[in-house]
Recover the amino acids of this structure.
């Protein structure tokens, strides 16, 4: 493929994947292989962008320097201009590797580690422990080869799949959106499309989402009962009944620390947004306003609405919108040809 | 190294992509449980269709046993699933009934060598179901498949219910 078309084509692939990812939870509420396949496609897209970036930054320049002697002048000039264009995209794309993005990544990583630690050896309350013992007795009586000591009631892999995979998809989608946003003017289309998707899901939530049932027993649960366990705790009557919000589920599963860690990325984006509002004039303030509105809606859905299939779609479209609107600055670079200097 | 951040991002992305690919090919425990439960329901259904021929009783009992074993596998994969525990109780009851057709249950329990063990299993399963879902009373008909289906009552396909 022509290198000038390769990068814009990736933007359309990004949009296609974004639409697929936000729609699939409505068709398949639980289908790990479908989520895995989508995550894989996001990973391939990000790998393609990063490899392209490395090629533009390092190998392409090196190769071209060696090759220039063998070309005639018009051909050399045309090639140089085309190369300059794509090289400029790559240089601007490097802005997506800034400090605040790495802090965001570190927050998500910490949240994932904390969740895994909570799920690896979760504390079993007395009632749940009793239930576990009876279940083990049934299995042992029915199957002589049953390994009572090594049996796990929850697969750690399942827990990781259900929680880390969606988070990775949001991170990959957001980061690629930032790279496009910094580097290419065509990304403006993608930005408004992502915003449109988010607006659609926000409307859907406003119309369809049921309010969460609140009944906090206590807020001193520092370490949670592990990912995927809120269902059994609810069945045993140990936690609040009714529809739970995402925040409540997170609190029961990963404790207060997990619930706070999950809000850290939002705080980082809010800080970056505040910086934009004070540094970048009216355009920065307008973007900060959009970011604030998106963050408030995400927070409202997280705290007050009962969990549903729309949660992942709303978060994905919301974080991609945030990634576009929280860019520090995007300047059009002017072409400067070294030959004429 | 000048582009260390880009290289680190590339390696991290490759790792995450590998994890995603792994999740496509490796089956989660909940899906395994669901597949085992479907297998058990198919055996259970097939057991009801055995009738009239020579050796039908033997085949029926074997199919009930396979259905029960399949459901235990489903439970080992998804131990807190109340639906599976309910099905297990129903299958256990059916398994008993297939052995003691027309006889007194208590007399069978006293006579059969494994009957007490079976009885204890049943009590445990009922206790688990009561703990997990106190509102379920265990008397639902058609829990595994529709027992009012005409085909199961020997009416044949297409016959009126």
């Amino acid at each position: 493929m022509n290198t000038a078309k390769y990068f814009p084509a990736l933007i359309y692939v990004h949009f296609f994947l974004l639409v697929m990812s936000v729609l699939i939870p409505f068709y398949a509420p639980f289908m790990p292989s479908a989520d895995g396949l989508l995550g894989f496609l996001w990973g391939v897209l990000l790998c393609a962008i990063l490899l392209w970036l490395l090629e533009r930054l390092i190998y392409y320049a090196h190769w071209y320097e060696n090759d220039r002697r063998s070309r005639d002048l018009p051909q050399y000039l045309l090639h140089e201009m085309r190369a300059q264009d794509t090289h400029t995209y790559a240089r601007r794309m490097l802005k997506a590797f800034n400090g605040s993005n790495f802090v965001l990544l570190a927050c998500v990583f910490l949240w994932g580690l904390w969740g895994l630690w909570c799920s690896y050896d979760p504390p079993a309350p007395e009632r749940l422990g009793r239930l576990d013992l009876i279940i083990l007795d049934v299995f042992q009586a029915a199957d002589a080869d049953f390994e009572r000591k090594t049996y796990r009631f929850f697969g750690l892999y399942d827990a990781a799949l259900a929680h880390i995979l969606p988070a990775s998809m949001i991170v990959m989608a957001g980061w690629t959106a930032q790279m496009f946003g910094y580097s290419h003017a065509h990304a403006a289309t993608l930005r408004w499309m992502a915003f449109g998707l988010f607006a659609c899901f926000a409307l859907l939530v406003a119309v369809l989402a049921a309010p969460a049932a609140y009944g906090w027993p206590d807020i001193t649960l520092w370490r949670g009962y592990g990912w995927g366990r809120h269902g059994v705790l609810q069945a045993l009557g140990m936690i609040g009944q009714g529809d739970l919000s995402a925040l409540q589920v997170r609190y029961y599963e990963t404790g207060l620390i997990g619930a706070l860690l999950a809000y850290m990325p939002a705080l980082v984006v809010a800080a970056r947004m505040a910086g934009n509002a004070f540094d970048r004039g009216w355009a920065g303030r307008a973007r900060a306003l959009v970011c604030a509105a998106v963050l408030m809606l995400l927070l409202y859905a997280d705290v007050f609405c009962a969990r549903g299939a729309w949660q992942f779609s709303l978060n994905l479209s919301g974080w991609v919108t945030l990634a576009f609107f929280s860019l520090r600055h995007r300047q059009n670079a002017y072409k400067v040809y070294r030959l004429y200097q | 190294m000048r582009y260390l951040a880009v290289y680190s991002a590339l390696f991290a992305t490759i790792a995450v992509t590998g994890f995603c690919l792994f999740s496509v090919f490796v089956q989660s425990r909940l899906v395994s449980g669901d597949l085992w439960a479907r297998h058990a329901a198919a055996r259970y259904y097939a057991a009801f269709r055995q009738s009239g021929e020579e050796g039908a009783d033997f085949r029926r009992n074997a199919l009930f046993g396979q259905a029960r074993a399949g459901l235990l596998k489903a439970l080992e994969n998804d131990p807190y699933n109340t639906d599976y525990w309910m099905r297990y109780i129903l299958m256990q009851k059916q398994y008993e009934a297939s052995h003691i057709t027309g006889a007194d249950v208590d007399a069978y329990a006293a006579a059969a060598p494994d009957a007490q063990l079976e009885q204890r299993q049943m009590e445990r399963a009922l206790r688990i179901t009561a703990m997990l879902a106190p509102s379920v009373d265990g008397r639902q008909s058609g829990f595994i498949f529709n027992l009012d289906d005409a085909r199961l009552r020997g009416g044949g396909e297409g016959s009126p219910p």
